[in-house]
Design brief:
131 residues; mainly alpha; two-stranded antiparallel ribbon; 7 helices; 66% helix; disordered N terminus
Amino acid sequence: MQFLYFYKNLFQMYGSKIRMIRELRGFSQEHVATKLGIAQTAYSRIETNQTKLSTEMLEKLAKELGVSPVDILNSDPVVVNFYGPNHGSAPFGTIQTVNVGEKELYEKIIASKDDEIARMQKTIDSLLAKK
């Protein structure tokens, strides 16, 4: 019974993830709604979890956003990798989920990068001060 409750809640929480992916892709609600063949207001209800997605609509939506249906329904965070500049014309890169272990690793890498940037800034400042 506990699993069923979690499963039900998982399907009710997809809207914010869909919105985030859409925005990262540079798509408007109108654009996605047109591609899906529905009104913008109907699409908005999907992002606000007011409408349940059918399997068919989930698959169409995932295809338009360039992700898998599992990426939308998965409770893991989303990672976006861009391969080049996105000028709103087409999606670049990939969107994928990341598990907790990978998330911790990414956070450590980012923290070490920030430390390295701070060290480099100090070096630059000291070199400029010597001029």
